[in-house]
Write a structure and sequence with these properties.
It is built from eight helices and 13 strands. With about 400 residues, it is an alpha+beta fold.
């Protein structure tokens, strides 16, 4: 989907403290400011603004660009045997004593190692399927149908701003499979970013500046994993340090702020579905880099096998930390969808995402997150799937989902 001024009509960008470059001029198209904080260097090969240079020979880019990481270990199988029944239907099985009976055969006992003594089936781990609701924001994460573990993580929460109004926060992280301990990386990043936001917002920090600092905190948390003994034991010359992508959103009564590093995304879906939906983030990926440089059309770039190789991530071996932030001021109510590529691969365009999410998402965020995860599983569930749904504007303190 082209990503430029025409793609974002609502919400409008907004300027404010900690939001350099976000000037809102009446009558001009709304364009998000995706620049890093002042002083941060521009990412190599990324687009400064949303205009594309004249197209060049699409065959000129035949080799991976510098700083590109492929999100799969060499020789890693494309599919893994399921470790548990399909998460969409497992809940319909006969009730079983929690932690005692096998989820597959419903007869054998589960040993201390997590395997059924009757059929030998491996039991689902805690992170195979996670759901959480916190006031008006909710998130769901699922291992999917092909991966052997869930390398995604999320953190959600609410905070009271100094003026007494409410803010909702969601962070979603996707572990880089080609790295060591990607599941630990995503968990550390999501917890660190969420904690930083929930600490800074009540102190009066501008949400955009708070988001920038939260991404920096998440980066430090992931970097620290590379120094831990567990990483050293697992590390091999062909592996990389723990790494993940991150996308987050902060919603207040009148402001929407997003931040990201990597290819996890945020979407805006207005409650009035006749109004246009919009993608609020721009991927740090090989395909986006080729399109931004004018070397390939979007169709050519995303058809290439290198399309989803990421050019930005959190991790000790990242070339340079490039936190992207953008602030918007929507003129109507709606929801923000924050997700990993395990979902948007099955609803890439903003219009597709708007067509999948239920119309009552603002009042039933947990149900809507489940529906979105189910959409990805119905599409094949080739990756871990994680999504958070936040209503805009943030409801008053104490209000929850219906």
């Amino acid at each position: 989907m082209p990503y430029g001024p025409a793609a974002v009509q609502h919400p409008e960008p907004v300027s404010g403290p900690g939001a350099p470059g976000n000037s809102a001029v009446p009558g001009t198209p709304a364009v998000p400011d995706t620049s890093a904080a002042p002083g941060a260097p521009a990412a190599p090969g990324t687009q400064d603004g949303f205009g594309s240079p004249a197209a060049a020979d699409p065959h000129a880019a035949s080799a991976p660009a510098p700083g590109v990481r492929f999100d799969r270990r060499g020789g890693e199988p494309e599919e893994y045997p399921l470790q548990a029944p399909d998460p969409r239907v497992a809940g319909t099985a006969a009730p079983a004593e929690p932690g005692k009976l096998c989820v597959a055969c419903r007869a054998g006992r589960v040993d201390d190692d997590g395997y059924c003594e009757n059929c030998g089936h491996a039991q689902p781990r805690e992170r195979d399927h996670m759901e959480q609701e916190c006031g008006p924001v909710a998130a769901v994460s699922d291992r999917g149908l092909r991966h052997h573990r869930n390398e995604d993580a999320f953190a959600i929460g609410t905070a009271a701003l100094p003026d007494g109004s409410a803010a909702t926060v969601a962070i979603v992280c996707d572990g880089v499979s080609s790295a060591t301990r990607p599941d630990d990386a995503s968990l550390a990043a999501s917890r660190a970013a969420s904690a930083a936001l929930l600490a800074a917002l009540p102190q009066g920090a501008h949400p955009q500046q708070a988001m920038h600092e939260a991404i920096v905190a998440a980066s430090h948390a992931v970097n620290a994993l590379a120094e831990e003994p567990a990483t050293a034991r697992e590390h091999a010359p062909h592996q990389n340090a723990p790494a993940c992508t991150l996308v987050g959103a902060v919603v207040t009564g009148g402001l929407l702020v997003v931040g990201w590093v990597g290819d996890s995304r945020a979407y805006w879906v207005p409650q009035d579905r006749t109004a246009p939906a919009a993608r609020l983030t721009e991927d740090d990926s090989w395909a986006a880099q080729m399109v931004a440089a004018g070397l390939m059309s979007e169709a050519e770039a995303y058809a290439d096998e290198r399309a989803h190789a990421i050019t930005g991530w959190l991790g000790a071996d990242a070339y340079e930390l490039e936190p992207h932030t953008a602030a918007f001021k929507p003129d109507r109510p709606g929801v923000v969808v924050v997700c990993t590529d395990g979902l948007w691969n099955y609803a890439e365009a903003a219009e597709e995402m708007a067509g999948v999410i239920p119309p009552d998402a603002a009042v039933r965020p947990l149900h809507s997150a489940r529906v979105l995860v189910g959409h990805a599983l119905d599409g094949g569930g080739h990756d871990n799937v994680t999504v958070a749904v936040l209503p805009f504007p943030a409801p008053p303190q104490g209000a929850g989902s219906a």
